[in-house]
Amino acid sequence: MSRLRDARWPRGPRERRLHMVTIGLLGLGRIGAMHAKILAPLADRLVVADTRPQLTADFAAEVPGVEVRTPDQLLASSDLDGLVITTPTDTHAATIDRAAGLGIPIFCEKPVSTDLATTLEVARIVREKGVRLQMGFQRHFDAGYTTARNNLRAGKIGDLRRVHMGTLDQAPAPREFLAASGGIYTDCLIHDFDALRWVSGQEVSEAYAIGTDLGMPDFADFGDVAETVVLLTLTNGALVTAHSSRFNGAGYDVRMELHGTLGTDTVGLDEHLPMTSTEPAATYPAGDPWVDFILRFKPAYEAEMRAFMEVAAGTGNITAGIEDAVAALRISEACSISRREHRPVRLEEIAAEPPSSSQKTGNEA
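-> structure tokens emitted (365 positions)
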């Protein structure tokens, strides 16, 4: 496998330590294949599996050197140092539960489940079994969000007063994806809710959401919306607006503005911003617009996988864990209830623990 090393990665003791790690990856869909291609030059051994044998065979032919197993074989393996779960969302919870018995760190794409009760139960299992679970919130590894977080903590923009953020897709996903996505708050804005907590260091105390399905069956049939605007209140009193769209035809637009008493920081204001200025002298942005999340967050995904490699090697810390998954989904649930019932929803109304548990939820970030 060492012949597969990518020249972009630095040589040296740190890289040699990563190359002693064996990683298993379950699920070779679009994002799973992306993660696997990042991991292939980093891991000493990469073992992949998918419920679709032909997909697995095609991937192995494209990326020489990977080992292939069935899903059952992979989840019964005793030679793995870490497991990456990139299967469909509705399989995440059961797969984490089963993989917990391997006694190794686990990476899982978000969300754990579209259902809060299931997510809370998985959190209980993870805590009781001592599983180190890293969630797929890649914005923790994005340079822009990281700089905004550090600047805020260093006092560079003063006291935080307002935040504006959003994730706007260029075009909606297929109907079959929308049917199982959990809705726009759980599928899309959950990344913004997680980034908000991580960057600001604050929790959300109240949510109010409005949205429209535009009269389209692809959204109305599933109780989902195509456009939404959310108002959040943070525990320190700062106000947050968040918006999301499935029809941002100019391109994939992800931004976060932090307005403080001394200045304003903006994440996502780069040459690929899918926006046009109407000012006569404006030439910015001049680059081709982002068209999807994989291109926009490619460096973050690479850093995320390298970080998980270090967790698997026993040398790294988890910055986005199960407690962050629970917290972000609770905000999503509050927004869903608010939109349906046309009222503000206090986060204290949303369960933070499964009924059988008396443990208190914290924040790993």
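DSSP finds 13 helices and 13 strands in the chain.
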